[in-house]
Amino acid sequence: MRSARVHVHGTSLPVLPLERRYRYVGPAELREQVRPDGLGRPISSRDDLATWLAEQDEPEREEPFTFVVDTTATLRLAPRRSEHIACAGGDPVLGAGEITFARSHDGWRVSEISNQSTGYCPDVTSWTAVQAALDNAGLDHPGSFTRPIVFRRCLHCRQLNIVKDDHFVCAMCEEPLPAVWNADPPDEPEH
Ligand SMILES: [Zn+2]
Is the domain of 154 the same as that of 142? Predict the structure, then answer.
């Protein structure tokens, strides 16, 4: 994919996409799980990842972990089944989901990755931010979400839906669901 460029005083500069920040939209009681020691480990290099994986129990290493991309565009990892809001320290994120690693000839690579986070419900377009965080850490990855999740909120009954097989219909009230991502409640200001 070629990135767009802008010319400033004769210099060609890449246009960085404006990353969407996702606010927590999950159950309020899970906010109580936010603790300083629950914050996900920042992963900025292959060595960071190897160190973190070495600290995990052997059977867990090739199971999915919880991840977020924080607002500094850094990948953060937390043990399996951790809540994304705890991994992010309660802050907004640029991306969130589950990530699985597999051994490669010279370390670890990302084998599976999704945007599955019912706490943040990020759009599939959050891949841009996720990919940037993985690339910055030097991690090999599949090039897209291996299991993309399409989140939509019903405008009629407010139910949050996961759209399957392009069937954009609310599971609760059977009203049509919007074509564009809208899991963020529009009546609350972004912060
Ligand atoms: Zn509905």
Answer: no
